[in-house]
Amino acid sequence: MSRASQLPAPATAATISARGIVKSYGATPALREVSFRAEPGEIVAITGPSGSGKSTLLLCLAGILQPEAGEVWFAGRRIDDAGEEARSRMRRTVFGVLFQFGQLVAELTAAENVALPLLLSGARRREALAVARTGLDRVGVADLADVHPSQMSGGQAQRVAMARALVTRPDVLFADEPTGALDSLAGEQVLTELTRAARQGGTTVLLVTHEARVAAYADRELSLRDGVVDGPAHEVEYGPGR
Amino acid sequence: MKHVVLGLLALGDRHGYDVKRQYEARFPAAKPLAAAQVYATLERLERDGLVAQGGVDRAGGPDRTSYTATPAGRAELHRWLSEVEPPLPYVGAALLTKVTLAVLVADDAAAAGYLRRQRAAHLDRMRELTRLKSDPASSLAWVLAADYALNHLDADLQWIDTAMIRTADLSKEMRP
Ligand SMILES: Nc1ncnc2c1ncn2[C@@H]1O[C@H](COP(=O)(O)OP(=O)(O)OP(=O)(O)O)[C@@H](O)[C@H]1O
Ligand SMILES: [Mg+2]
Predict the structure, then answer these.
(1) For chain A, how far is it from start to end, CA to CA, in angstroms?
(2) For a pocket test of ligand 1, which of A22, A24, A56 has the largest count of ligand atoms closer than 8 A to its C-beta?
(3) Cβ density class A159-192: b for 16+ within 10 Å, e for less
(4) Higher-confidence residue: A80 or B165?
(5) Which residues of chain A have pLDDT under 50?
(6) Rounded to the nearest whole angstrom, what is the distance from the C-alpha of residue A119 to the centroid of ligand 2?
(7) Which of A32, A236, B114, B151 is the most exposed place for a label (fewest CB within 10 A)?
(8) Is the C-beta atom of A51 inside 6 A of ligand 1?
(9) Ligand 1 atom at minimum distance from A52 CA
(10) Taking CB atoms and an 8 Å limit, are B154 and A217 in contact across chains?
C-alpha cells in the first residue's frame, strides 16, 4: 500500500460555488456578479480575454481574495466570510493552488518542496517526504527528488509544483495558466498528467487559461468577458453547494 | 489520391483492398476511401507505368491481384514529396463563407449567436480529440491526426473570437 493512500480520501459532495461575486481593485471593477458552480471531480476551464477577471475569480474562490459582495460556498458551507485563519487552513488542506511560475522554494529540494504542505499541516518529516516522493513519481519526475529548483528546466519545475499542489489530495485544485510559461509539448505533458491525477483522485480542477487548446483538457468551459459570465443567461449555472 | 496510393505501395506490395485498409490504418481520422476509387486509381497508375501487377493470391476467397510500385512510380512519389503544398491559395472555407453571409443576411445578434454556437461546437470537438490523444492506447497515427486537427480548430477558434469582436464593424461596412 502506498503512503499516499493513507491520507484521507477527498470528501464527497465537495461542490464549490459562487453566487453574485463582485470584486474591484480601487475604481476598476474586475468581477460584476459572477455566479458559478463546479461539481466534485469536475474539470472546468475558466477562459476569456486578458483582463476579463479570470485570475480574480480564481483568487476569490480559493479564499485568497475576499469579494465585496456575493457568496462563496464549499462542501455546503459558506467560506467567503470565514476568517483569514480558517481560509488559510483550507488552502493547506482541502484546496491546492498552482500558478504559472511554479513558485518553488529555491533553498529546498523537489521532495522537500512537495512535502511542504504536509509539514505545514503537522505531518512528520519522514512520512511527508515519503508521500512527496510518491507524488513526484506519479507525475514522472521521481529522479528529481533531491534536485534544487535552480537545477531544473521550466517543465520539470512545473511538474514538481504540480506534485506539490496535489500532495494533500485536495478536493479542489486552482490552477492559473499552469502551462503559460511552457512550450506546447511540455505543456501538453503537464496537462495530461494534471488531468489524469485529478480524475484518479476525484479532484475538482478550476483551470484558468486563455488558450482553447488548454481549455480542451477540461470537461466544460466557463467563459468570462469584462467581469461577467459570457453567454445567454440560461447557460449560467449557479447556486450554493448541496 | 494518386500519390497516396503510390506512397502506400512504396511501403510494400498489396492488393487493392489492402491499400484501402492501409490507408485507414495510417490516416485513422480521415474519411474512409471507397474501394471503387482505389481500384480506379490503381488502373490509372498501371496505365501510366507507375505501378505494375505482381502475383495473384488465390488463398481463401476470390482472386486478388497484388500491385507493386515501379521505379518510375517511386521517382514520381519522391518528386511529389519534395514539392511544397501551396499555402492556402484560395480563402474560401465553409466557416468563413457562412460567417460572412450571416453578417450580411442576419442581424448582429443572430450572427453573434451563431458565432457563439460555432465556438462551442469547435471546443466540443477539441475536447473529444484531446481525450483521444491523451489515451495511452492511441496509436501514433491517431495522435498525429489529433494534433493536426487541434491546431486547425484552434486557429479557427482564434479567428472566431476576433470575428465576434469585428462583427459590429463588419456589418456596418457590408450593409450600406
Ligand atoms: N492587483 C490589481 N490591482 C489593480 N487592478 C487589478 C489588479 N489585478 C487585476 N486588476 C484588474 O482587474 C481586472 C481583471 O483582472 P484579472 O487579473 O482577473 O484578469 P485575467 O482575466 O486574469 O487577465 P489575464 O489573462 O491577463 O491574466 C483587469 O481590469 C485588471 O487590470
Ligand atoms: Mg490572469
Answers:
(1) 33
(2) A56
(3) bbbbbbbbbbbbbbbbbbbbbbbbeeebbbbbbb
(4) A80
(5) 1-12, 233-242
(6) 29
(7) B151
(8) yes
(9) 21
(10) no
% of chain B residues with pLDDT over 70: 87
The candidate with the shortest Cα–Cα distance to A100, out of A16, A174, A196, is A174
Residue indicated by cell numbers 487493392: B16
- Average pLDDT value over all residues in chain B: 85
What is the DSSP secondary-structure string of A96-133?
EEE-SS----TTS-HHHHHHHHHHHTT--HHHHHHHHH
The answer to whether A152 and A106 are in contact (CB under 8 A) is no
Task: Select from B113, B116, B154 the Cβ nearest to the Cβ of A212.
Answer: B154
Quick one: closest CA in A to B123, which residue? A216
| φ/ψ (deg, to 5) at A141 | -130, 40
At residue B113, the pLDDT reads 82
Q: Does B129 touch chain A (CB under 8 A)?
A: yes
Determine the Cα–Cα distance for residues A26 and A30; give it in Å rounded to an integer. 10
pLDDT band per the 50, 70, 90 thresholds, residue B59: low
Q: How far is B163 from chain A (nearest CA, A)?
A: 14
A52 touches ligand 1 (CB under 6 Å): yes
| pLDDT for the residue A3 | 44
Q: What is the pTM of this model?
A: 0.80
Q: What is the DSSP letter of A174?
A: E
CB-based contacts of A97, cutoff 8 Å, min separation 6: A62, A64, A91, A165, A173, A174, A175, A176
Separation in Å, CA of B141 to nearest CA in chain A: 17
Phi then psi for residue A3, to 5 deg, are -60, -40
- Is the CB–ligand 1 distance for residue A43 below 6 Å? no
The SS3 assignment for A54 reads: helix
A99 CA distance to ligand 2 centroid (A)? 10
What is the mean pLDDT of the segment spanning B119-123? 90
Whether the pLDDT of residue B165 is over 80: the answer is no
More confident call, B85 vs B81? B81
Q: Grade residue B131 by pLDDT with cuts at 50, 70 and 90.
A: very high
* Short-list A121, A92, A200, A112, CA closest to A160: A112
What is the CATH T-level fold of the domain B2-82, as seen in this structure?
Arc Repressor Mutant, subunit A (1.10.10)
Predicted ipTM beyond 0.90:
no
One-character DSSP codes across B74-122: HHHHHHHHHSPPPS-SS---HHHHHHHHHHHHS-HHHHHHHHHHHHHHH
Residue B173, pLDDT score: 65
